[in-house]
Design a protein that fits this description.
The chain is α/β, with parallel strands linked by helices. The protein has a single domain, classed as Rossmann fold, CATH 3.40.50. It is built from 5 helices and 7 strands. Strands 1-3-4-2-5-6-7 form a 7-stranded mixed β-sheet, sandwiched between helices. The longest helix has 18 residues. The radius of gyration is 16 Å and the shape is globular. The chain starts with 8 loop residues before the first strand and ends with a helix.
Length: about 200
C-alpha cells in the first residue's frame, strides 16, 4: 500500500471501552507513549493536519483509544498516554484495562501491523516506557521506536540521545529508530515510508 500523502483523515471512534472498537477489517497502526510525549502532535504532522488529534492541556486526563480512519484504507490508533504520576488510581485502572483490551480484545487485532512507540528524546526511555516495550514484545507485534522533540536538543544532547535510543532499539530487536520533530518535520517522511512498507 502506498502511503506517503494521506489526503482524507477523520476521527472515526473515541473508545472508552473495548466493546466500542471498530470492526472494519482495515489494517491498524498504533501509537503508544507516555503522557506529554507528543503523540497528538506527531499524528497531526504525519497527516498534514493542525488539530485533528487534540493536544490535551492536561496530560493524562483523558483515557480513550482514538481511531483515525485514513483514506478509508487504514486506522491510526492513538492509545492513551501512560506514566502520568498524578493520575487517580481509578484512571490508572481504566488505562490498564483499555490498553490491555486493545491488544487482547481488539476484534481486528490480527490487522495490527505496527506499534509506533514514542520516547521523549530529551529524557530517554523511562521505566514506564521500558515496561510498555516489554508488553508489546510479549504480544509479538512489530514496533519501531520514535524519539520525539529532537528540535529541543543541542548537538551534545542529540548525540547522547541517539546513542541511548539506538542501543535500546538494538537490545529490543526493533529496527533503526526514527528521530522526529513535529516542529521541523525531521523524520516525517522516514516514518511515513516505514508505515507504507509495513502495510505492504
Amino acid at each position: 500500500m502506498v502511503f506517503n500523502n494521506p489526503t482524507r483523515a477523520e476521527l472515526r471512534i473515541t473508545a472508552g471501552l473495548a466493546s466500542q472498537f471498530p470492526r472494519d477489517p482495515l489494517p491498524q497502526i498504533a501509537f503508544s507513549g507516555r503522557s506529554n510525549v507528543g503523540k497528538s502532535s506527531l499524528i497531526n504532522s504525519l497527516l498534514g493536519r493542525n488539530s485533528l488529534a487534540r493536544v490535551s492541556s492536561v496530560p493524562g486526563k483523558t483515557v480513550t483509544v482514538n481511531f483515525y480512519e485514513i483514506d478509508r484504507k487504514l486506522f491510526f490508533v492513538d492509545l492513551p498516554g501512560y506514566g502520568f504520576a498524578n493520575r487517580p488510581k481509578e484512571s490508572q485502572r481504566v488505562w490498564q484495562s483499555l490498553t490491555d483490551g486493545y491488544f487482547t480484545r481488539n476484534p481486528n487485532g490480527d490487522l495490527l501491523r505496527l506499534v509506533v512507540q514514542l520516547v521523549d528524546s530529551r529524557i530517554g526511555a523511562t521505566k514506564d516506557d521500558l515496561m510498555m516495550i516489554d508488553w508489546i514484545r510479549s504480544r509479538g507485534v512489530p514496533f519501531v521506536l520514535v524519539a520525539t522533540k529532537t528540535d529541543k536538543l543541542n548537538k551534545t544532547e542529540r548525540a547522547e540521545s541517539e546513542r541511548m535510543i539506538r542501543s535500546l532499539a538494538e537490545e529490543s530487536g526493533a529496527p533503526d529508530p526514527v528521530f522526529f520533530s513535529s516542529k521541523t518535520k525531521e523524520g516525517k517522511n522516514e516514518l511515513l515510508s516505514l508505515i507504507g512498507s509495513t502495510l505492504g
